[in-house]
Structure formats: C-alpha cells, structure tokens
Amino acid sequence: MIEVLSWFITSLAPAYIVYTLVALGNLLIERSGILNIAIDGFFVLSSAMSYTYAILLSQYLGPGALATCISVVLTALTAAIAYSIFTSISTVLPVSQGAIGLSFMFAGYGLGAIVGNIGRIFFSTHRVRTDYIGTTIESSIFAYTLTVAAVFFTHFLLYKLKLGVFIRAVGEDPRIASQVGANVVYIRFLSGLLGGSLIGLGGALFTLWRIGGWSQGQGLNHGWLAYAISIAGWRFPLLVAPVSVFFSSLYVLSPHLQSMSLPVEVSTAIPYAVSIAVMALVSILPKRGRVFADPKALGKEFFREERA
Amino acid sequence: MVKVGFVVIRRTKQNVLTSTPIVILGSLVLGLLISCVIIWATMGIDIVSFFGTFYQTIVSYTGLLEPLVFLAIIGTAITIGFYGSFWNVGAEGQYVMGMLGAIFLTMFSPLSSVFTQDNALLTALSKVVVVVFGGLLGAAWSLIPGMLKAYAKVTEVPVLLLMNYIAYNISDYLTAGPWKGRYTYGYIRTDLIPESARLTVIPGLEMLRYEVLAAVALIIIIAYIFLEHTKLGLKVKFLGTNPVALRSSGYDDRVITLLTAALSGFVVGLAGSLRLLGYDYRLPYNIGDGKTGFYGYTAILVAWLSFRDIRYVLASALIVASLNSFGYRMQMLLKGLLPPGLSAYAISLVLIGVTLIVYTIVRVLKEYTVKLVIKA
User: Fold this and answer.
1) pLDDT over 60 (residue B60)
2) Which CATH code fits A7-134+150-284?
3) ipTM of the complex in this document
4) How far apart (Å, rounded) are the C-alpha atoms in residues B290 and A217?
C-alpha cells in the first residue's frame, strides 16, 4: 500500500499533473465551441518558453525557487495571451477552425524550437545555473493540491458561475447565446485566456519539473495525449481527473513494458493506440444529457452577419 | 461607454485584389515578411540576408524538384480529403505505410524473385504492382480514422496525428527487427532493394525519375476528372459543402466519408512507395526523425494554399517547396548566424505556420469584408 502511495506521489505526479492541467485547459476552450487543434503546438511552445524564461531569470535573479516560479507564471500568462488571440481570430472571422488551428500548431512547433534555442544559447554563453523543480514528496503534494484545486475550480466555473453558463451556451449555439446577451467574442476570448493559462502551466511544469531541461522537439505529441484525456473524460472536469490517472499511468509505465520482452517501438506506440481506442469507445458510449455531450457548435464557424 | 465590435459581411463583388492568384501571392509575401520579423527579433537575421536566401532558394531550382513532385502528389491527396471534409493530417503515416508496402514486396515477398530475373516487361509490371500495393496500404491506414469518423463520430484530426506516430513505430520495429539488413555496416536499417526494382533517373535532372513525373501528371489529371466530371466526385464535394443535402438525396454520407479517406490515403501511399523505389531504396531506423522529409505535414499547406482546387496544386507545391527548402538553405548559407542546435525544419515550420495563418485570414477577406464598429 505504501509502495503504491509512494509511486503515486513521486513517479506518477509529474505526468498526471501536466496532462490533467492541459486537459482541463483544453476542455475550457472546447466547451466554448472552439476546436482546439492547435493544442500540441501551444504545448511545445509553452514547454520551450518556460525553459528560456527560467534561464534568463536565473541570470538576473540568481538560480532558485523564485526564478523557477516566476518562469512558470510567465509561461502561463504568455500562453493565455496567445490562446486568447487564437480563440478571438477563430470567432471574429468566419475561418475554418481546423485550418487556423493547424496553422497555429505548425507555428507553435517552429517558434518553440527557436525560443528554446535562445535559452540554450544563453545557457552556454553565460554558464547560467538553473534550479528545476525536484520530484520530492513536498513538491508532489503541492502540485497535486494545485491540480485538484484546478479541477474543482474548472468545474465550479463551468457549472456554478454565470461565466461558465455563458461559455457552455456559446459552445452549444453562439447565435442564440448572442441573442440572450452573451458577447460571443468576449466569452471565447476569456475561455482562451483561462484555458490557455492552464495549458501554459502544464507546458511549464512539463519542462521545469517532469523533464528538468529542454531539447528540441520536447513536448511533441504530449499535447495530443492531453487532448485524448479531455475527450475521454467527456470534457467534464470531474471525469477528466480520474481518466487522466489511467492515461498518465499508461505513459509512465509504458517504458517498463520493455522488461516484459516487449520491443521498445511497441511500448512507445501503446499510449497512442490506447488513446485512439479510448476516444473511439467514449464516442460510441451513449451520453446521458447535454452535460457529457460534445458542444454542438464545436468547430463550426460563427458568422455574425447571420445573427438575427 | 465605448463599445467596439466587428461586422462581417459577405462580399457580393470581387475585385482584382481578391482574385485567387493575388490572394495566394499576397499571403506568401505577407507571411514571409512576418516570418522575417520573427526571425530578425529572435535570431538577429536581417531582412537582406533573409530575402537574399529566399531568392537563392528559388533560383537554384534543382533543389526544389524533388520536394516539388512529392508535395504535388501528397498535396493532391490531401486536397481530395479536404473536398470531402476529411482533414487528412495523417499523410505522414500513410506515406510511411506506402514505403513499408514497397520494401515488403521488393524484398520479403514471392514477387521479389521477379527483380532478380532479366525480364524487362515483368520487372516494369512488378514495379507498378509494388507502387499500387503501397497505395493500398496507405488507403487501409487512412480507413481507420475514416471509419472512426463515419461510424463513431470521432474527430479525425487527433486520430490521424496519433496514427502517424504509430506508423513511425511500426516502421522502426520492422527495420530493427524482422527486416533488419545484413549489409548495413552496423547501421540499423534494411538492406537496399534490388537495382532492377529502382526507378529510372532522368539524365541531366538527377533529382527526378521518369516514373515519378508520369505519376504526378496522371494523379493530378485523374483527380481533377474524378472530382469535376464524375458522379462519385460530385458526391465527395457535396459531403464537404452540404452533407445534409447529400443525406436528403438518399446517399449514405458514411460511405462517401470512407471513400474520401481511402482515396486520399491511397494517393499518399503511392507517393510513399514511389519515394522508396526512386530515392531511398531502403528503410532507415528512427524514420520519424525527419527521414521522411516531413512531406506529409508540409503538403497540408499545399492543399490549403491551392484553395482546395486541384488546378492550383502544382503552383502551390512550388511555393511550398520553396518555403520548405528555404529553411535548409538558410541553415547552409547562414551558418554561424543561426543557433547551432536549431534544425532547418524548425525555420521551415515557422514559415509554413505563419504563412498558413496569414493565408487563412486573407482568404476570409477574399469572401467577406470585416468592418470595425465603434459605438459611443
């Protein structure tokens, strides 16, 4: 029992917390009707950004918890701003959400490589020492608490606050929501801001805690795993949290499958295959009520001229 | 209190500025300018070096030929998918499947014995079989997300992207395991395919193959005829523009979705097998580490840039091939100015991503006018 608990706290914590935060961010954005195809690009960018922030801040503030914490906050803020731009463009203009999402995804991959390399060059020229977050019992418990708080906050926001009602209404039918007084652009801007900050937070913790460093291409595909968690949890915060345990465990345990004589390529592919299978299974299952159903306006253009 | 808002109105009249070629070229120039600013701000590369390198990329056209032909084929495939609202971002995986099909038939199947015989006709026919088999594997790979979309209503984009990584891993497993070569100087890769199975180099244009050129022409022409002049093509287009009307007409939209996915994957698979027979001749390990040239991803821009119109695919492929080669050219010419660890593809991704964003927005402005409204 103690072994399981210890494994949960130290081994699983970094993966679980990152994926859960990113999945929560995604569900906030998608509940407002924005198809979040850009998620993986933004995750890669956040991951690189946090590393560069940490390097630059360690140079000026000295290595330590302060520089690392400010880097995490700055990454969350930058990702929030970037996401709010993305959700606003997707709403103001009648663009294909798939196309604009893919465009941001590619730009995120490329910018991530550039931004991360800036940090790396600064690191090698100034010999900066950076402190990453260690996986200790204290840090794990703090991060778990933060994640549980994020889960309940997201649930409370979506289902108890007026803003949450508007976010869900806009995701169901933006034209009707607009007629009853919701400012669709503003609501989606806010959901981008909130969801983006959670995705940025996840990206920052991925680099500064789970990995403890940065290399080009870091974070690739992890955004998609979080996306799969979000879909598998029916974009419902209280369901996303337990679903994330399954996916994170799978990801953390997959390298250990090699000890069972499973080729490395097979164990690497397992989380992707399972993600697809779970997404399919969840889509087939009958959903009770609109709470668990996909937002009706997800991925659809919002053409303001057609408003009554 | 001042209220700010936007009013979007559909354009009733088009002018010179909203014509298709101007929109494509304008987006390209604007995308390049924004990328230039990003690269200048982050890496200090000035505008003269930036555009000088771009000019040199276009002038040295021989380097563009190989990406051009593959981007044209895969771009056509993705365009077919776009017509039927099947966002085929999984072309990378289908491309790898095409390569796997080609290596299997030429080296590990009974057909491989044909390539050791001195029979030109039989060899030529076998090459066609190999290429088509690669296409079929691509189609089969694409049908998985197609079926999930049609019957389980699963958004195809994440499924297709995740399947790309599964395809990479299948390829790596086979390359390091059952298909591992014996004559590889210690490298993990397959052996080379027989010389008689390889495609024919065009003298003077070493980056081109006769068979690949013929395939590009045939694929574009057949795709155009299929989409514009056949009943089935019309159904695919209907699926993309008005699926409700398609259903109301009594057609099963799920079957048309499957057809679109299979066709798109088939054409990508053809590109994969042509690539292996004409250029790579073997499968490398770590294939997802840029060894495919990432054409499956880059070709998405070709399809999107071509206004989902087959007639513009070749011109779009040329533009994208230039952008794609630009990153590599920049790394070569501006050595010392760029961060040593920065991959050429990262620069290309910035260019591609920014150009796509600009183009997506400009494209809207072709069809709509956007007015800023400020109310006191």
Assistant:
1) yes
2) 1.10.3470
3) 0.84
4) 11
